[in-house]
């Protein structure tokens, strides 16, 4: 419940932020769904490298391995990625969005600043990721 609410809140906020963007990725299912392979991996492969493409930091390579999207978060430091009792982690795919939105990831790049440094996920990219999470993170 908490987790669903949190993620929809982020998705809505992200969608609002991009109200007048050109639309090729803002599609509904009819127009070509957002997928990991086509849309998300290319973002993570750049912005999360090398930590989560080859180095497996935090226990995953979300930028190169789809299976890691569906695995559960392990780090207790992952703020917003657990329920209030810290017993139920969300998936790493969901946590990726949360961690990008709150500036924790990519790590140590000051991504909580406005504007975000160039090494961070852009707000446009974040919105695409939010739509993908809302759609159930299809491969
Ligand atoms: C400079 C290296 C680095 C980069 C770049 C980076 N991360 Fe991380 N990430 C880490 C480290 C280190 C941890 C483990 C932190 C901890 O356990 O406290 C982590 C943990 C995580 C976790 C929590 C995993 C778990 O199971 O606890 C998620 C989700 C995550 N990163 C997503 C991302 C995403 C998405 C990107 C790119 C947009 C990214 N990270 C970029 C270093 C990085």
Write the layout of secondary structure elements.
Layout: H1 2-17, H2 36-47, H3 67-70, H4 92-101, H5 123-134
Helix pairs in contact: 1-5, 2-5, 4-5
Bound molecules: heme C.
Polypeptide structure, described:
With 139 residues, the protein is mainly α. The protein has one domain (2-6, 35-134). 39% of the residues lie in helices and 0% in strands. It has helices at residues 2-17, 36-47, 67-70, 92-101, 123-134. Helix 1 crosses helix 5 (123-134) and helix 4 (92-101) runs antiparallel to helix 5. The longest helix has 16 residues, at 2-17. It is globular and about 35 Å long. The two termini are 24 Å apart. Heme C binds at residues 44, 47-48, 51-52, 57-60, 62, 73-75, 77-78, 92, 95-96, 99-100, 105-108, 121.
**Beta content:** under 5%
**Class computed from helices, strands and strand pairing:** mainly alpha
Write down the domain tally.
1
Count up the helices: 5
Overall geometry comes to: globular
Number of beta strands: 0
* Helical proportion, percent range: 25-40%
> Can you write the helix and strand succession as a string?
HHHHH
Small ligands present: heme C
| N- to C-terminal distance | 24 Å
Mean pLDDT level: 87
Oligomerization state of this entry?
A: single chain
Q: Which residue ranges are poorly predicted, with pLDDT under 50 across at least 5 consecutive positions?
A: 14-21, 25-29
Radius of gyration: 14 Å
Strand count, sense and closure of the main sheet? none
């Amino acid at each position: 419940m908490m987790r669903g609410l949190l993620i929809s809140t982020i998705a809505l906020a992200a969608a609002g932020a991009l109200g007048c963007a050109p639309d090729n990725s803002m599609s509904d299912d009819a127009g070509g769904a957002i997928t990991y392979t086509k849309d998300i991996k290319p973002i993570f492969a750049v912005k999360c490298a090398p930590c989560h493409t080859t180095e497996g930091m935090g226990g995953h390579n979300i930028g190169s391995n789809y299976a890691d999207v569906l695995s559960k978060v392990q780090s207790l430091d992952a703020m917003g990625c657990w329920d209030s009792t810290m017993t139920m982690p969300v998936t790493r795919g969901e946590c990726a969005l949360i961690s990008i939105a709150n500036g924790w990831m990519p790590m140590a790049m000051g991504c909580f600043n406005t504007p975000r440094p160039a090494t961070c996920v852009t707000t446009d990219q974040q919105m695409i990721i939010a739509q993908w999470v809302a759609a159930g993170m299809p491969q």
